[in-house]
User: Which sequence fits this backbone?
């Protein structure tokens, strides 16, 4: 495949002088169109050492309005990154709607340098193929334009460039043992590059091989490739906008009683004395587990979803009461900010996941996509339907890294909710907790219920099962949730040790 | 001073049971009031190892709505932090308007552990007193509530707690050599703590010593201290809001012609042929300097301010054209985002400063405070008047770290601006660059001029002088700016080496 690339391709100076200024202007226009259409653009440069990534990225930077792009040089992961699933750092680099992100090397490092220099094992880089395909599909589905460039030069040309860099004291440091090793093992790298390009070149994120022997030729090809991709992306964004009417009347689940929620036994309860005793024991156990987690560098995510007034907050307070605050964080999920809205909906959750050894408790979660966003029509039907798979992929990446993941649904019935709403309204210092919106949501109980059932059915996986908390009795729900967390943490620790 | 603390203070269980629930409710109310008033709150815990910071922070966390606070455990700086001025990481942790930030240890680590364990030299920790005083004054001036708590226990009590922790396998790791060293050198630490409290206890950010022998007593004192401070802060915020009318008619500078701007010789110019030659040479020189900077780990900040259409963009493009994109970043400064508006105005600039070895070019800067914000009445007169000093302090911290700082003012006259505006409107692909706002700003030329003159006079310091670029001739301005940057980088490298 790569051997078919014609590395002798050149462009005459005259032709270049004619074409180039037009491309520069066109690139600027492209950027403004992408901004207007709200389409984010990712351009990533991979290729041989000394193939000219720096020069080409600079040419691109010059043509773009600096208010709208960012260059990300990607090298070995920092400690912060190594303490999280490997895709975490790339999620953090993604552009907002309408912005460009230019990657100088990228997530493909795992399939090239990390693989070939044996920085990761075979299982890890093989898994990376799947992770990358899922990642890019999720981004493309959300409207991201993805341009992937492989800068290609011959082994001979590379060696010539290395020697030129070495001859200059200012650039000599750029050529070290690793670079010459790549030259010596050119064929091995070539094979890996071909496998990478073949297996990850998809319709939504295709590779373009850029013959980079001559700078002029490479520049023009890079610019033309980017311009065409962005134009297609802008057209697609406009088409999507024209089509996308939020599903005004969200789909109801097929009426198949008894549903999974009907089978929940809400009569379960616990006496206060019994509760106090059990709670104390569980909190002591959790305190010890938190410390063991830290020592073993195991991360944990505890996710709470449930009806309004089902008792999420009180439950979380009991969970964290006995913990060391340096080891956990509670992340409440509210309406997304403007910045968050300008990104993929999973972006803010990727940013908030715990590093190894720490616990993050989410008070509401990424399931908002298939609950409130679905029911209120904040996203299109295609979007929330797609979200089940995206969420499962997200949770697989978390747990694949060794994260303990516990997901709670707090179930109460409609009468109990009414009782609690009224109670809140009567108790002075609790009044702020009940708003008109809560009452409005209550009117949509049936539609929410349908969404909950779909959610439980579609996202209960072997690696991330749901736990339903029977929460008509708060005491029962609290004790059950703390016990569930403690058991899950213990199991996670055992997995790490075993 | 600390020897006067009565470490035998206790609270009877009965009293506690009566007081505590009220304090918890009051704390929640406090938080909601702070949010409503938009007052950010910083609570920092310093004190002896094993004094109970964790327990107290957790008690505080339980009482607060998790949507409104964040706990920051502060330990040794990461590599990312060490590559920047030391206050950078704390600026990054500051709460937005209405939010709480709880620090488990803080910037005072420099005056305690870093000083006493000799992790930094005497010059460094002595400088820290000034840095901290300036930092806290800047925050307090902007309406931040700052609560500083020193948790105090006796040497005997500390040793007792160490032994208890050691006896439990889950907590044993918390007591190591460093902890026992603190116990052995209790008196030395005590002296340092006293010096710290004396020299940094200010009216705007006072210290409170918390006698922490008994948990019950400490809890109540911490809660009462925080509640009182927040209440005072909320009252102050309300008072400020009532007073603060933006200076509708911004102050004009005293008419003292000829001003510094009148003395600028705008007839300076350069022929194109000469320009091309000089530009090429300078770009080559800058390319080499960029690499030397990287190798020597010297950071650089290049700041561009100037009239609309004075040629900032073109100037920056020539500066960066020849550089390696991995070594520099252009940060364009536009209207602050909602998140940025919720913070101190310097916050977004602190976040954007380069790490050691890198160059950041600012296209417009922190001087917006004393230019557009002053003239347009986006801030109060007190605020922009205070800003000169704040900016000088900011720049002293940058350059104190070894950052090369170059500040450009691009000066053109009113006629030249008109010529360029018209030209932009006539040239198809440049039309997007000229907006109605540009024309509106132009009408306020005199008021802007007064602000520019004040700015140049008040913020040209020995460590961060302004360079005025005579920009009626773009070619002259470009060559002068590139030469100025090159000279400054060379001088900075020489300082690092010398």
Assistant:
């Amino acid at each position: 495949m790569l051997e078919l690339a014609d590395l002798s391709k050149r462009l005459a100076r005259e032709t270049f002088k004619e074409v180039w200024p037009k491309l520069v202007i066109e690139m600027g226009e492209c950027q403004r169109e992408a901004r207007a259409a709200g389409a984010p653009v990712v351009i990533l440069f991979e290729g041989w050492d000394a193939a000219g990534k720096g020069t080409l990225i600079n040419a691109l930077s010059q043509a773009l309005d600096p208010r709208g792009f960012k260059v990300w040089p990607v090298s070995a992961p920092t400690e912060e990154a190594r303490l999280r699933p490997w895709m975490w750092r790339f999620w953090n680099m993604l552009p907002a709607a309408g912005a460009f992100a230019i990657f100088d090397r990228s997530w493909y490092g795992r399939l090239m340098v990390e693989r070939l220099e044996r920085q990761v094992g075979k299982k890890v880089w093989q898994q990376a193929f799947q992770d990358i395909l899922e990642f890019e599909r999720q981004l493309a589905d959300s409207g991201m334009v993805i341009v992937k460039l492989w800068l290609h030069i011959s082994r001979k040309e590379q060696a010539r460039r290395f020697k030129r860099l070495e001859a200059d004291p200012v650039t000599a440091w750029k050529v070290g043992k690793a670079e010459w090793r790549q030259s010596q093992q050119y064929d091995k790298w070539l094979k890996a590059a071909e496998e990478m390009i073949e297996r990850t070149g998809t319709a939504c994120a295709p590779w373009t091989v850029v013959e980079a022997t001559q700078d002029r030729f490479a520049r023009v090809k890079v610019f033309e490739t980017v311009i065409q991709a962005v134009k297609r992306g802008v057209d697609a964004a406009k088409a999507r906008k024209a089509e996308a009417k939020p599903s005004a009347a969200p789909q109801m689940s097929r009426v198949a009683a008894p549903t999974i929620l009907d089978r929940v036994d809400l009569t379960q309860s616990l006496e206060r004395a019994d509760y106090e005793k059990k709670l104390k024991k569980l909190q002591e156990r959790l305190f010890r587990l938190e410390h063991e987690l830290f020592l073993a560098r195991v991360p944990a995510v505890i996710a709470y979803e449930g009806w309004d007034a089902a008792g999420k907050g009180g439950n979380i307070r009991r969970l964290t009461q006995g913990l060391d605050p340096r080891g956990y964080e509670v992340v409440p999920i509210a309406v997304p900010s403007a910045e968050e809205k300008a990104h993929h909906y999973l972006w803010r959750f990727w940013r908030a996941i715990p590093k190894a050894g720490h616990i993050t408790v989410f008070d509401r979660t990424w399931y908002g996509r298939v609950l409130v966003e679905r029911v209120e029509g904040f996203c299109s039907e295609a979007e929330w339907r797609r979200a089940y798979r995206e969420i499962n992929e997200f949770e697989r990446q978390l747990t694949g890294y060794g994260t303990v993941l516990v997901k709670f649904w707090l179930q109460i019935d409609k009468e109990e909710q009414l009782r609690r709403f009224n109670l809140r309204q009567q108790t002075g210092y609790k009044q702020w907790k009940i708003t008109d919106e809560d009452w409005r949501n209550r009117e949509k109980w049936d539609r929410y219920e349908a969404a909950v059932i779909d959610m439980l059915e579609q996202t209960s996986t072997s690696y991330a099962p749901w736990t339903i908390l029977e929460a008509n009795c708060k005491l029962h729900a609290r004790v059950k949730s703390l016990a569930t967390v403690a058991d899950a943490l213990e199991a996670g620790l055992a997995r790490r040790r075993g």
Summary: Chain A touches chain B through 48 residues (CB under 8 Å). Chain A is about 55% helix and 10% strand. The beta strands of chain A are 41-47, 69-73, 100-104, 145-152, 207-211, 300-306, 328-332, 359-363, 404-411, 466-470.
